[in-house]
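Predict the 3D structure for this chain.
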Amino acid sequence: MTGIHPDIYLFNPTCEYAIANDSDNWQPNRLLTKMESDLSALQLFLAHEKDYVLAEKIPSFQFISKLKQFDIEIPNFILKKEAVKNRYFIDIQKNKLLPWGWSPSAHKFLTPFKESCSDEFKCSPVFNWNPKHREITSRKFAAGVLKQILATAKVDYLLPGKLLPQICTTREELEKLISKWGKLMLKAPWSSSGRGLQPITKVPVHQKVWEKITGVINEQGYVIAEPLLNKVLDLAFQFELKKTRVKFLGISNFYTNNKGQYEGNRLNGLPGTIEKQVSDFAGKVNREIPELLVDTIESGEMAMFYEGFFGVDTLIYSDEKNNLKINPCLEINVRQTMGLLSLQLEKIIGKNKHGIFSIYYRPAISFNEFCKEMEVKYPLKIQHDKIWSGFFPLTDATENTLFGAYLLV
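Done. Predicted structure below.
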């Protein structure tokens, strides 16, 4: 905890889409707006007692009472629409503004609170939007960091240089890479949680897929093409960047669906079902990769133009000779992340207990219905103020809640 004044949290996980749009008036579509609304209090697990979370809905008394079973600091909550009009709240001395991620639209929304922030925050590189911020949040920037790591690192288990991501603006460039690599993974420059991905696994490529790819190029300028690797395991490293120095915070183990979209995080390490060869390899890279990332990022533009939390996704894969390798910088999420949240959530479950942290969404079944089913199926057991087993919702569940977050231990 730093200082005596509160930090102000804002949950805006659509920040990458806002950056891609590059307008301070950008608004998410109806479904994404609903997601931000239903999950708007989720940052309470990152905040301290003195802090404020800007929420679409104030969590219910019943929900807060459940949280008080654990050693959690409960922050203050204030409605977003009230906060921007409440002169007392606007004027109270604040430390930092901490949106999930910075974007032109986040800056516009938070502008009323900037004047009452600390001098330290006013001097930080994220106090105002800078075109450089758009650049460092792109997948193109992450590919540059990867290239630098591969050029300087002296270890033999990294992705070989011949498989470096390529920036493509035409169909002809992509067809050449299909001939070279066979299967591809194409990525939009700006998207989040595994969205904006297009695998290419069959030739000829269907016309509708080409139309989708052309649409991304027209909207965002290019696509990033990577060889589609034989994935074994996803890992993410969590960091905080402050005054050009990077602090390593920990490792998060996330998992995705077959489309590469984020589904959740494993808590307290890898499950026992992981092969020993894989877990040993993961242990080795967990010790060695963070230092490579810290050195590379501290010496680059990101250290000059960003301050705050970020996560680096990596990919352990099996090559054509069945050797385990790692892409040490698959993506850089220049924002708060679900992996960062998972590190905090590990503090409320039993020390040697495994679990998952996941985001819920099913169009036909509300989060409230899902919670009722899961609480019967997986009753909660608490020992020593920690979750020992069972299901626990991390966001409020009401009749009209579509999205939610939960733990299953």
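The first helix runs from residue 15 to 21.
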